[in-house]
Amino acid sequence: MTVIRQDDLIDSVADALQFISYYHPVDFVKAVNEAYEREESQAAKDAMAQILINSRMSAEGHRPLCQDTGIVTVFVSIGMDVQWDSKLSVEEMINEGVRRAYTHPDNVLRASVLADPAGARQNTRDNTPAVIHMSVVPGDKVDVHVAAKGGGSENKSKMVMLNPSDSIVDWVLKTVPTMGAGWCPPGMLGLGIGGTAEKAAVLAKESLLDPIDIHELQQRGPQNRVEELRLELFEKVNDLGIGAQGLGGLTTVLDVKIKDYPTHAASLPVCMIPNCAATRHAHFTLNGDGPALQTPPSLEDWPEVTFEVGPTTRRVNLDTVTQEEIETWLPGETILLNGKMLTGRDAAHKKLCGMIDAGEELPVDLKGRFIYYVGPVDPVKDEVVGPAGPTTSTRMDKFTRQVLEATGLMGMIGKAERGPMAIDAIKDNKAVYLMAVGGAAYLVSKAIKGSKTLAFPELGMEAIYEFDVKDMPVTVAVDVNGESVHQTGPQKWQKIIAETKAVEVE
Fold it and tell me: Which residues lie below 8 Å from residue 50, measured CB to CB, with a gap of 6+?
């Protein structure tokens, strides 16, 4: 009989969550670097360079890889011969570990979990509760997998009940382009197949805990239908040309993971969940010998990558930029932003639009300004701001036309593509949309030299701030004419990949 003490589980969960907030799994780092080295699209290559530089900076600085430090998912297998020395339930112990991790004074993590999701949506302040899956198994140990999943990638999860005769491959290839780039590729796709609807979803999430091994599988060859499906999907999804951050390129997925389960004769449940450029998971086992703490990897496992500013890169002063100037910016062009920008995302936009509807004076003058869609991590020590990467821009699409037309806002900065409604508004108002790299939050924060709250302080990380930035790298994603690089880039690279393969066949 193994006795597991209460603090052993709490301390192990807290340690694992702190660890994965700033250390990528080494297999992920190596996979991104391999994709970076073979990438031929310069825009995608630059994006992956920023992801790799950010990864090393976070590992060195022990600060979050991404400003969205995720909602915690825990898989716990409890041996039948385990006895607990605890006054708390297993669920309560895990949530206490989450609480301690997310409020750690040396590395405060952003609390993103809201209670009453269909009502008041009040932040729980400590990122609890976690989503916990428990099973009881033979043995005398407790086996735990901990993951932290960002909202941008989780929101792109897809579920379908196919007919048994339908093609899973066809559904995936039809569905992946509809996910856009808000899940911050390159990453992994996790598929759960079979069981029931909820079982397929759990299988998909669990599959993402496995290490990246697609190249080893390619070398030895498939040994069953699931492995055949992994290889087929890996090749065909990358042939779509979506590329890093949706900019067009050779690598969209680093691996495809699949778990399956027996299902009803009339059913074929399939769930697909993407894992983003902030892939975060850890594993530990408790055997009664105390807490299981993570072992830091060697920084030698990180490649030495630099982000080179090209000779055509523009430096822009946001304090003096003119309409005539932004009308010369080209889709796909790299720009370094300097000067003062505003911030604001969902909650702030909702408040602004409510005030516009009511005819009230806005607390901030947006005319001629740029707004950055971001919810930063709280700063620690001498930081101006914590990790401050972009959030998914499509969530602001429904507000875009009203804000542009009522305020004279000149430009927006965020993550991934804009939808047709926003693109039309951008075009009609001769505004621009710039894209920052999702998954490079700590790197972005180093470009922020000053920060102050201007409005809605009660919204916390969703308040309107003013950032003073120096050489913050962005890509022109939608120009004043409404041309979107997230449409033209993948189209271009899908064609290039197809032509290259046709030549190879000949």
Answer: 307, 437, 439, 440, 443, 473
